[in-house]
Specification:
Largest sheet of chain B: 9 strands, mixed
CATH architecture of the largest domain in chain B: 3-Layer(aba) Sandwich
Number of domains of chain A: 5
Distance between the termini of chain A: 39 Å
Helix content of chain A: 40-55%
Radius of gyration of chain A: 35 Å
CATH topology of the largest domain in chain B: Alkaline Phosphatase, subunit A
Strand order of the largest sheet of chain A: 1-2
Number of helices of chain B: 14
Oligomer: heterodimer
Chain lengths: 877, 486
């Protein structure tokens, strides 16, 4: 099956990638032929040390020179060995890797046309030489230049200006002249709709009726946007977007034990804090990549600022890491953790999928395998796969010297109490023993004292029989309470006191961090990605293709002499946050845009390479990127820009012409309708039903399996492997989803059902589905029934009339007042539901034994459940 | 609905689709819609991004003889010496010390006294398969089954051996067999989950929910629990107070709400799909209720499965449900016995016959019934647990107290249908029935063979995880056992 998929995958790729020449005459080696060889042939015929059949296919002159079987290009394709082997399917070897018909035709035509190159080929074969001009000129490697905003005279929001210009341009090219007027933005959405959209976009929670009222009366979305950005709810929602990209999890993953990461949450709280504070994003990136290299206080005595810097490096510790437990191959596991980390860094910050280059040169993007290992070298002093540290060993204690000293003092105090207690105990035993002895004949006293002083196991038979004869002499630490209750109580008090003293020690907390350990391990290229086959040593560097296009960006040193650490990651951070680095700002801006519009200006947020999509509005993307950097890398500034635009505030599109011409809504002539993310579904239901617990931060709320294996919020309480008594969660079960444990092997069922991904290693964007399990969950699950009942209770408490309850439900769930016809619909429904419930015995009115929930209240619950289940609630429009 | 009819038009017609009520599969619709949406989203460039997963029926590389499976999972370790694997030598040594080396699990109660089976064996069927008097009904299907006497996992305790057989390796957290099959083959179920786990009214088997876990495969491949009592499927049927007209009316109300909403949002595929998804979920409730309703079976069929006889009613009902599910396109059904039912450490003389009585008639009836309905050719039936037992006495405390300890080095199980060879005995244990000797079938060989029958290759049915292509057999040298094939 995977085999079939591979074929399909390759076929599609090939069809789409080989940008078809518009005519046979247009075939160019550089644009059309080279990439075919690069994809199919270079690994064996060029890249690796041993060139198969002595044939290097990287340059045309090498082809002409030929290999062991002589030249491979002749006068005609049919005479050319190169074409013959490809045509007959002998090359490339393997079932799945054949050229497509189109590719084969391109090669054939190229030979027919004389197998020429457009430009002379490089004399010396260097790595840079293998990055062609075509590759270097790929859009995302070009410097970001701030374009002029169109229609400057019209004082438009710049976002709208760019969007409109593109609409007008497409309109002017549209053939049906009478339809050109359709290419405009849609009108602004109604105030309640806008309020709901705004709150859900910034807080992941719907507005309360009061907030909507205030939104309407203020009549200034800009002001409300500012207010929302100041609320802690904002960071709690937006942090999740970043945590997806970072691959946040509360467990190690990788192996099947999926050990819990007890300290990961500090990184989660750090991200929330940064979003709330609008920490400059270049700083945010720097802290995450190299916080440890910025630390100035000693690791065993961290200042609060430095503790935060170390917490930030948790970003580089999010990849699955099985090295703390049993894994099939420890060396593979270590290298996999490094590889996953590089994947996270490159997809989140660099918009490139460098992962393919782990085993061979990237088939599509100009990223060589050497490039990959040079990039890896940046991280090697910290990961140091040959002197690996397991997750436990990598923890950094947050104890300060003062705390450590305080803890030692407290321990000494406790030990003193204990010593005192032992002494007292001896005295009590001795006194009690003497008291007992006094009751016995004097002639045995001496003998008995001696026996009592001897440890029970070492007593002679005579001594033992003495104690058997006079059992009251068995005064021990364990039996003292039988003789002298006050004395034993006093001892217990002392023990308790020692315990209490110990409890006053400051708690020792740890940070999940990445640090270097002083070594500068050598980095080698691993032949075919295999660590057992190290090849040439490589020095740390950023991607060659970027260095070629942006020459002013900082390089990576082997060792920064000004720092205690290698300085490599700090240099990477400086490189990535340099205004001349072409990718970072574009990638970040695109993500923010994607979360607001449901799709990025570049549709593939983690891939700005050849396989990624091109930006629909390149100038807008660059303007936003430039503006973002000039604003001091302020995410909140971006939000304001985007959210105040008409493009974002408009209604969904209503145009048959545009449905036809622009089915993807790539021109943004209307708002997108988006399904709420999993967390938003759960959190919104909780807020609406009045149960949401807004407690912020701290260790995650645990998740457990219920009796049938569904993952629910709860403290596991197993009794011989089976669920025991349910442990009261005291409102913790109602906390926001971001604070619920994200264990890879135990995805909370309600979130998993609504497509919250399991991180492996990260998630570039959510993919909302409409699976039937979502419908079943809304219709039948205990969870939704429970939340709906809470909402019904709330309605009944707040409104005494049924009409009032319906209105209130509409306001809470849909954020608007119901229309008259909707009221009637609801009234009729409730009437009929009540009649149906009353037929059930447990809902029949009974004065002696009133039903637990009346038919009225239960009907109201079902009504609420249907509102929760409906599209108007589950989607943001 | 427009979406639905278009998709139905494109859906692959298969035998099971025709057999079933004709309704479009729930998962299929959702998945197809999703695939379509993805296609719309990325028309220009291919996505080098995480795969999306679905339960659409998949084509296999190889021709498949099987397309569904019912596993009768006998957790605890049925005693092969007493049911499937006669050892005359034990009679000669009965009560005498065992002369060789033995792998005990419970040293405290170990005895080296040989224990000959108290039950008689007899040649059965045309094939002459020797089976004991404990399983007379199984004897009646001897010519349909393939008895493997040389099973081996070679790990010591229940948990590990269960994992070996249920998820391919002894470690925790892996996807179960049913998840792999639904991942590899998709679903042909109309309005039913593809993988269903029929649990016993007693306790869950050892390892509980792990037995039907999707492990690290996407959660759409997780087994859906069919509980032994109502509600049989979680979230599939409404809570009692919503049942029937209450929910029907509620869903009508929901449709009204959604209809008003979509009127303001014309052309929104996602909204349409969700409306369809509720309709299909509602249908699934009906379909599953129908599938689980045994009153629709004739009296004759019911009594064939032992329904009506207190000893067999419960297990017989679940076997019959399994058949009804398979008929409706469910890919994999596993029917569990209670926790440690077969774990005969003591009192084997009294307990083993009871266990046999519970499952013998229903198991045999299932095979006969599938055959008479023409479904046996394409449906694998598996009968077996994670281990067998030792040839010597455990707990030598009187005839009524004695038992046998664990043995994962050699034990028996049977398979039938779906391309397995009928009326055939494969492999042997040594003359003591302790260790598999000739034609040993390790758990990974069994898995390789099983996947082969489904047209899958155990090495190429992979799932990418942590930079590794994981498989059911994962690095173990599994081979297709040709002699097991018809």
């Amino acid at each position: 099956m995977s085999y079939l998929r591979t074929i399909i995958c390759f076929a599609t790729l090939a069809n789409l990638l080989t940008v078809a020449p518009s005519s046979a005459d247009d075939i160019r080696f550089e644009s059309h032929v080279r990439k075919i060889f690069k994809k199919h042939c270079w690994q064996c015929h060029g890249e690796e040390d041993e060139v198969q059949a002595g044939l290097d296919l990287r340059l045309v002159r090498f082809m002409r020179a030929g290999g062991d079987s002589g030249t491979v290009i002749a006068e005609t394709p049919e005479e050319s060995l190169l074409y013959q082997r490809l045509r007959d399917g002998e090359m490339p070897p393997g079932e799945t890797a054949k050229l497509t018909t189109e590719e084969l035709e391109i090669v054939q035509q190229w030979i027919v046309q004389g197998a020429e190159t457009l430009r002379p080929e490089p004399e010396v074969v260097t790595e840079a030489a293998f990055i062609s001009d075509e590759e270097r000129s790929h859009w995302s490697f070009q410097p970001i230049q701030r374009p002029a905003v169109p229609y400057s005279e019209r004082q438009l929001n710049p976002v709208d200006a760019f969007i409109r210009r593109r609409l007008e341009k497409v309109a002017s090219q549209h053939e049906q002249v009478e339809e050109r007027t359709e290419f405009v933005l849609s009108p602004q959405a109604s105030a309640p709709t806008l309020a709901r959209r705004l709150y859900l976009s910034l807080h992941g929670l719907p507005p309360t009726p009061k907030q909507i009222e205030s939104f309407i009366s203020v009549a200034d979305p800009g002001r409300v946007i500012d207010e929302l950005l100041e609320s802690p709810r904002y960071g709690e929602f937006w942090a999740q977007h970043w945590l997806d990209t970072a691959g946040y999890a509360d467990s190690e993953g990788y192996n099947d034990a999926d050990t819990i990461r007890s300290d990961a949450w500090r990184y989660r709280d750090y991200v929330i804090r940064c979003f709330n504070e609008d920490r400059a994003f270049d700083r945010f990136i720097t802290e995450q990549l190299a916080g440890d290299e910025l630390v100035t206080s000693p690791l065993n005595n961290l200042s609060a600022t430095d503790a935060e810097l170390l917490t930030a490096t948790g970003f580089l510790r999010m990849a699955p890491d099985g090295t703390g437990g049993a894994v099939p191959d420890a060396m593979v596991a270590r290298n996999d953790t490094i590889a996953d980390t590089l994947k996270i860094v490159s997809s989140s910050l660099m918009g490139l999928t460098v992962g393919c280059a782990q085993c061979h040169d990237h088939r599509y993007d100009p990223v060589s395998q050497a490039d990959y290992y040079r990039f890896r070298a940046i991280f090697d002093p910290a990961f140091d796969w040959q002197q690996w540290r397991t997750p436990v060993k990598r923890r950094v204690s947050l104890y300060t010297d003062a705390e450590r000293k305080q803890a030692a003092e407290i321990e000494a105090e406790a030990v003193a109490i204990e010593k005192d207690r032992v002494k007292k105990q001896q005295e009590y035993i001795k006194a009690t023993f003497e008291k007992q002895l006094a009751k016995l004949p004097a002639e045995i006293h001496e003998q008995a004292r001696k026996a009592h002083q001897t440890a029970a196991a070492k007593r002679t038979p005579e001594q033992k029989s003495l104690f058997q004869k006079h059992p009251s002499l068995n005064v021990t630490a364990g039996s003292l309470y039988l003789y002298d209750k006050p004395a034993s109580d006093r001892l217990a008090e002392m023990a308790e006191e020692a315990k209490k003293v110990r409890a006053t020690k400051p708690k020792e907390n740890y940070v999940r961090a990445l640090t270097e350990n002083g070594r500068l391990p050598k980095t080698h290229l691993f032949f075919r990605g295999n660590h057992d086959q190290p090849r040439q040593e490589l020095a740390p560097a950023g991607l060659t293709v970027v260095s070629l296009s942006a020459q002013s960006i900082p390089d990576i040193p082997v060792k920064d002499e000004d720092l205690a650490s290698s300085g490599r990651r700090l240099a990477l951070a400086r490189r990535l946050t340099s205004p001349d680095y072409p990718l970072t700002a574009r990638v970040i801006v695109n993500r923010i845009w994607m979360h607001h519009f449901g799709r990025g200006l570049v549709r593939t947020p983690a891939d700005f390479g050849v396989l990624g999509s091109e930006p629909s509005h390149p100038q807008l993307l660059d303007w936003l990127a430039a503006e973002f950097m000039e604003s001091g890398w302020s995410i909140k500034h971006l939000h304001r820009l985007i959210l105040t635009s008409q493009a974002w505030q408009q209604t969904p599109r209503d145009s048959d012409v545009l449905d036809r011409v622009d089915p993807e809504n790539a021109l943004y002539a209307g708002a997108a309708i988006q399904r709420m993310d999993a967390e938003v579904v759960r959190d919104s239901m909780l807020q609406i039903c009045g149960k949401l617990n807004l407690k912020a931060g701290g260790p995650p709320v645990p998740v457990m399996a219920d009796r049938v294996g569904r993952f629910v919020v709860g403290q596991e309480n197993l009794n011989a492997g089976r669920p025991g008594k349910k442990i009261e969660m005291n409102g913790e079960e109602f906390r926001r989803s971001i604070y619920i444990q994200a264990r890879r092997s135990r995805p909370l069922s309600v979130l998993a059902t609504f497509d919250r991904p399991v991180m492996s290693p990260n998630c570039d964007r959510r993919r909302p589905s409409t699976a039937s399990t979502q419908s079943l969950l809304m219709m039948n699950s205990d969870l939704v029934v429970e939340y709906s009942r809470h909402l019904a209770d709330r309605l009944a408490k707040e409104q005494s009339t049924r009409d009032g309850q319906i209105r209130r439900a509409w306001e809470l769930v849909y954020c608007r007042t119901p229309e008259e016809s909707e009221l009637q619909l609801a009234q009729r429904f409730l009437d009929e539901q009540i009649a149906l419930f009353i037929e059930q015995p447990q809902y029949q009115p009974d004065t002696k034994n009133p039903p637990k929930r009346s038919a009225e209240l239960e009907s109201l619950s079902v009504f609420c459940q249907m509102l929760f289940s409906s599209n108007e609630f589950l989607y943001v429009d | 609905m427009k979406v639905e009819s278009d998709l139905m038009h494109n859906s692959p017609g298969t035998r099971r689709h025709l057999l079933a009520s004709g309704a479009m599969s729930m998962g299929t619709l959702a998945a197809a819609w999703f695939a379509e949406q993805e296609a719309i989203a990325d028309t220009k460039k291919p996505a080098l991004e995480r795969q999306t997963f679905d339960t659409l029926p998949k084509q296999t590389e190889k021709r498949a003889s099987a397309d569904a499976m019912i596993s009768l999972w006998m957790q605890g370790g049925p005693s092969h010496h007493d049911m499937f694997d006669p050892k005359p030598l034990l009679e000669k040594y009965d009560g005498k010390p065992f002369p060789g080396e033995i792998k005990y699990d419970n040293a405290a109660q170990a005895s080296s006294k040989v224990f000959a089976s108290p039950w008689k064996f007899q040649k059965r069927g045309q094939c002459g398969m020797e089976l004991s008097e404990l399983i007379p009904h199984t004897a009646g299907i001897a010519d349909e089954i393939c008895l493997i006497r040389s099973m081996r996992t070679g790990v010591n305790n229940h948990g590990q051996s269960i994992r070996a057989l249920q998820s391919g390796r002894v470690v925790e957290g892996r996807p179960s067999l049913g998840s792999w099959l639904t991942y590899g083959l998709g679903s042909e179920a109309d309005s039913l989950p593809a993988f269903m786990a029929l649990i016993d009214p007693g306790q869950l088997p050892v390892l509980g929910v792990e037995n039907w876990s999707n492990g690290w495969l996407p959660s759409i491949y997780q087994g859906t629990v069919v509980r032994p009592t109502e509600p049989r499927i979680l979230d599939l049927t409404p809570p009692a107070h919503l049942k029937g007209r209450v929910q029907k009316r509620a869903l009508e109300f929901l449709e009204q709400l959604n209809a008003r909403h979509i009127a303001d949002h014309p052309g929104q595929l996602d909204l349409q799909a969700r409306i369809a998804s509720y309709q299909l979920a509602a249908r699934m409730q009906t379909a599953a209720t129908e599938a689980l309703d045994l009153s629709r079976e004739t009296k004759a069929t019911q009594s064939m499965y032992g329904i009506g006889n207190p000893a067999t009613t419960e297990y017989g009902s679940r076997c019959l449900i399994a058949r009804r599910l398979i008929e409706r396109g469910v890919r994999f059904v596993q029917v569990y016995t209670a926790n440690q039912l077969w774990d005969s450490h003591g009192s084997i003389v009294g307990n083993l016959p009871k266990a046999c009585q519970k499952v013998d008639q229903p198991s045999a009836a299932l095979v006969k019934d599938l055959k008479q309905r023409g479904l046996l050719d394409s449906t694998v039936v598996h009968w077996g647990g994670e281990m067998g037992r030792l040839p010597v006495i455990q707990n030598d405390a009187g005839y009524n107290k004695i038992g046998r300890d664990h043995n994962t080095y050699g034990f028996s199980m049977w398979v039938a249908g779906g391309g397995f060879r009928a009326g055939h005995v494969h492999g042997t244990t040594d003359e003591w029935g302790h260790k598999a000797q000739d034609d040993v079938v390790n758990h990974f060989d069994y898995h390789a063979t099983l996947l082969h029958l489904f047209g899958l290759d155990h090495e190429s049915l992979t799932f990418r995880r942590s930079n590794q292509d994981k498989t059911l057999t994962d690095g173990q040298p599994g081979k297709v056992v040709e002699q097991l094939l018809a």
